[in-house]
Amino acid sequence: MFNWLFAKHHGGRYLLRIEDTDRTRSTQQAIDAILDGLDWLGLGSDEEPVYQFARAARHAEVAHQLLAGGHAYKCFATPEELAELREAQRAAKQPMRYDGRWRDRAPDEAPEGAPYVIRLKAPREGETVIEDAVQGRVVVRNAELDDMILLRSDGTPTYMLAVVVDDQDMGVTHVIRGDDHLNNAFRQLGIIRAMAEIEGGWEEPVYAHIPLIHGADGAKLSKRHGALGVDAYRDEMGLLPEAVVNYLLRLGWGHGDEEIISRERAVELFDLAGVGRSPARFDLKKLENLNGHYIREADDARLAALVAPRVAKLIGRELAEADTALLQQAMPALKPRARTLDEIADGALFLFAQRPLVPDEKAGALLDEAGRALIASCVQALGAVGQWTPEAIEDPIRGVAERAGLGLGKVAQPLRAALTGRTTSPGIFDVLFLLGREETLARLSDAA
To answer: EC number(s) on record (predicted)?
Structure first.
């Protein structure tokens, strides 16, 4: 999202790369989920996605250029040797990194036909400095950087090589990513600077490493906090994409006291200077409350289309066109207090309930002898209503309350129980109007 906003704000291009070199994890299903989630959030790429695995030959070409230019070397260390090295370093409580044992040796010292990897000859003296657009100036001593593998023994490129080559070939100027990748930037710069010496034209991108998101308890975000796939927020939680984008935007970036920020406003305002350096805390309740705001702002026809499948699942049948039209008509009454699409769907169930209604325990308690007497009075009063409008319905019900010497709420409670089977619903006059004359009188007669 930050990449998308940054590109739009500066009139740049927002690009997508599917890094599918791990063939076991990069299934078509997983890739489709990424593309589907980005499209739902309105973060689709400006150009066709680049698939990293398809560019393996280009990545290998660069590794061999580095080898030929003296910036990389063949390493014939066996897995057993490397395991012994790691064990010795672990025992000595030293950082576990490759010791460069083949860095200055001639390849002909290895047995003929022995497998090898190609490693980058990283600088060992001095330090590497990154002026990060979020983290500020970050310095690493080059002695802490190891000679990372560029090509494996089977000739396949590593992720660290592939991303650098792809960034250069795609014309990437800014790399905005999680701060868990900050250490990688120093290692990747070694490739960029070496290739700049070999053939020129390799530009260092501007790096911006943004903090990760934590749970409300301050711990690293996990599934128990809500760290789920995008489809879970859409399908299972019933959230709107504009709410998710707004919430995530304010989670890691800010502009004064503005909380409700439209996409257009975000594009206008966004820059990296507003990104915080500390991890933000994910709060599902705050996200749901923000979603409630966007539900109230949303078009009723759009909401009805989104809620209809949820209602259908709850009642066990598909909604007819007339049902969806009723749902849309009911939306002004259903959405004011709802925080999710599921809450709207649940609130709409009374519209499609089958007679006779079976009230829940609390609603049933309202249908005692006194409650049924009030309902009978309402049936008589409503039976005289000619045109079924909200205004025409209201007066008779208020009249029943006045004659009984009760407040309107005391009459509305048993009415609501009889009409919806629950103690909570939209306003009672909305319920009466939406159910229509025939269904309203039938349900009230059943209860009376």
So the answer is: 6.1.1.17
